[in-house]
Design brief:
about 160 residues; alpha+beta; two-stranded parallel ribbon; two-stranded antiparallel sheet; about 40% helix; elongated; disordered C terminus
Length: about 160
């Protein structure tokens, strides 16, 4: 899950081995959020009350002009999410079959998401150097996640 305009990664759901569909994982995860919280999703999530999805063409039918415009508006908001997914998949360990021990999968995936957050500048590392020698003393993680989340709380997407 990401903030609108793909400003930051909010939540990462680690899948389990075996064939589990995205919608089942979504239903298990939605209980973390308030009932009135809305999300934006693709056609796989049609029927979920909390998720805004595009209109699907019926069999042997066409979409109305209004439905086409709504789909365009929704996809123009979702394109940022798709771009962020592409950035995560640049790391082949996420895209391909994981060949290490299954206990390491979570830490590897979260590390990749941390590197992506660093790349999109939502994660800022403050480096403290020694005044005398110039050696690195400390590296602290700093991010403005809460301020972005406060600004977005009134936005329905």
């Amino acid at each position: 899950m990401v903030l609108p305009k793909a400003e930051d990664i909010v939540d990462v759901v680690i899948g389990k081995p075996g064939p589990i569909s995205d919608i089942k994982i979504c239903r298990q995860t939605l209980n973390k959020f308030k009932i009135n919280q809305t999300f934006s999703g693709d056609k796989a999530y049609i029927g979920e009350t909390q998720i805004t999805t595009p209109h699907k063409r019926t069999k042997n039918g066409e979409l109305t002009e209004n439905q086409i415009e709504e789909n365009k508006a929704l996809s123009s908001n979702r394109i940022f999410v798709e771009h962020l997914i592409r950035i995560v998949k640049v790391f082949k360990v996420v895209q391909e079959r994981f060949r290490l021990h299954k206990n390491r999968y979570k830490s590897v995936l979260l590390t990749v998401c941390g590197l992506v957050r660093l790349r999109i500048s939502s994660l800022i590392l403050e480096v403290t150097k020694s005044c005398t020698s110039g050696e690195i003393i400390d590296v602290r993680m700093n991010h403005s996640f809460m301020s972005k989340l406060d600004l977005v709380s009134s936005n329905p997407y």
